[in-house]
Design brief:
6-stranded parallel sheet, alpha/beta, 13 helices, binds S-adenosyl-L-homocysteine, binds iron/sulfur cluster, binds FE3-S4 cluster, globular
């Protein structure tokens, strides 16, 4: 048994990260034949992409996917630790699985993802959730076939979580959930240690993939017919900083742009590492989409400092306006946390004034949730939950006004849309280059193509359009 330890996970070693190649355990081949699986995913795109690897590994040993967990022989929860409610959702699901297992004792249950990296969670599983068959962390997803085999052979609960990251694993199998858009990892982990955030503990130190591995993956996606890639990392702008070669995010964007992929997106960008050169590369290359997710978190310098974000409100605004100037049609979205410990009314008003200045095209807003082991969790907090909820409500009201305004600016414009599918009302839907959701009538055979659509109606969360050509 290998148990997690958050204090260990905090350490950053100087060990050189090299790459290894994925290998399935030969003896596990066939253990899933005739059996079905269901994977439930919580959290960010990183987790969604991990799930794509997990599904492919399960199919490699014979399992087949079902779309209802109640019909599955194996259920895996790929969990998220970012806020308390993500925790609660996963534990709620474990409660439902417990009932299911009472009527179906052969049900196999696994838990992985960021929560598996927390010792408190694993302790609780050991004490109260003995019906969970296996647990693995974010650093050893590639060992799934070994762990399954061990559980199948011994019948014992198998727990293998490493607190420290290992090497980068290349050639992981992948079952992509979309046939036109693909996620491509470029950098794992995070070294920023924003004081509220658990990610640097659950995902380990910053490790960039080799540029050639990324470019080769994008090229093969092009050959498979993919139109769009999203380059993934907790802080993509730090890409390359840990490599031995002199190669940065600008270089990577330039090189990926030279492949024949039609659309390139990237998330998430930390404002601190956003260089002028990066702005130029995005402005210059037509297949790099004019959309940037640039989390600000707060508009108060006092709170930004307590959050350890390493920029001031003024620096953020300078960067923001520079992007808007040099990439004129660029849409910019953000993340904001309200109710950080002892955030005053004045601090909150500064966040509102920043929102009023930036008029974000889209945003995600959250109430601060203390995460055990992080620096902010030690801060005392006098602000009531009611007050925090009121702030979130006020913030969302302001944000929504600007989402609508941003969408209204699109009225009568002709936009490029990658058609992704049909919605429940029978209309086609897709995203504009600026990442706006648009619905329009059209033929199903357009799915998978990039077409021109005229915007005819603007709502807060989406656009309506009609095919232009
Ligand atoms: N790496 C990304 C974001 C990762 S988490 C970045 O730095 O931008 C996504 C968002 O969740 C964060 O931007 C932040 O707004 C929010 N978040 C992270 N930890 C949180 C916490 N403890 N409580 C509330 N929101 C949190
Ligand atoms: Fe968390 Fe900050 Fe890293 Fe983003 S940059 S993952 S918020 S520590
Ligand atoms: Fe959640 Fe882990 Fe992603 S904590 S947001 S799943 S990196």
């Amino acid at each position: 048994m290998n148990l997690p330890n958050l204090l260990e996970a905090k350490k950053r070693n100087k060990d050189k990260v090299i790459k290894e190649f994925y290998k399935v355990n030969i003896n596990a081949k066939g253990i899933g034949i005739g059996k079905s699986y269901y994977v439930k995913t919580y959290g960010c795109q990183m987790n969604e992409h991990d799930t794509e690897n997990i599904k492919a590994m399960l199919e490699e040993v014979g399992f087949s996917e079902v779309d209802d967990y109640e019909k599955a022989d194996l259920v895996i929860l790929n969990t998220c630790s970012i806020r308390e409610n993500a925790h609660n959702k996963a534990f709620g699901m474990l409660g439902r699985l417990k009932h299911l297992k009472e009527s179906n004792p052969n049900l196999v249950i696994g838990l992985c993802g960021c929560m598996a990296q927390e010792e408190k969670v694993v302790d609780e599983i050991l004490k109260k959730y003995s019906f969970v068959n296996f647990v693995f962390g974010t650093h050893n997803i590639n060992r799934l076939s070994d762990l399954l085999l061990e559980n199948f052979n011994t019948g014992n609960q198998v727990i293998e979580v490493f607190s420290s990251e290992g090497n980068i694993i290349e050639d992981m199998p992948v079952k992509r959930q979309n046939s036109y858009k693909a996620y491509v990892n470029i950098i794992y982990g995070c070294d920023k240690f924003c004081t509220y955030c658990i990610v640097p503990f659950t995902r380990g130190k910053q490790r960039s993939r080799q540029p050639q591995d990324i470019i080769d993956e994008v090229k093969s996606l092009v050959n498979e017919g993919y139109k769009e890639v999203t380059l993934l990392g907790q802080n993509v702008n730090a890409y390359g900083k840990d490599l031995d070669i002199d190669y940065t995010m600008e270089d990577l964007l330039n090189d990926v742009s030279k492949t024949k992929i039609e659309r390139i997106r990237f998330v998430t960008s930390h404002p601190w590492d956003f260089t002028d050169e990066m702005i130029d590369v995005i402005a210059k290359n037509k297949n790099i989409m004019p959309y940037i997710h640039l989390p600000v978190q707060s508009g108060s310098n006092r709170i930004l400092k307590l959050m350890g974000r390493r920029y001031t409100k003024e620096e953020y605004l300078t960067l923001f306006h520079k992007i808007r100037e040099r990439i004129p049609n660029c849409s910019i979205s953000t993340d904001i946390i309200v109710g950080f410990p002892n955030e005053t009314e004045e601090d909150f008003n500064e966040t509102l004034s920043l929102v009023n200045e930036c008029k974000f095209d889209n945003a995600f807003s959250f109430i601060y949730s203390p995460r055990e082991g992080t620096a902010a969790a030690k801060l005392k907090d006098d602000i009531t939950l009611e007050e925090k909820e009121q702030r979130l409500y006020t913030l969302n009201d302001t944000l929504n006004k600007y989402f609508l305004e941003s969408n209204q600016k699109m009225l009568n414009k002709i936009v490029d849309v990658l058609v992704e599918g049909k919605n429940e009302k029978g209309k086609l839907f897709g995203y504009t280059d600026t990442n706006k959701l648009i619905n329009f009538a059209g033929d199903e055979n357009l799915i998978g193509n990039i077409i021109k659509v005229k915007v005819i109606e603007a709502k807060t969360w989406s656009l309506d359009g009609e095919i232009y050509e």
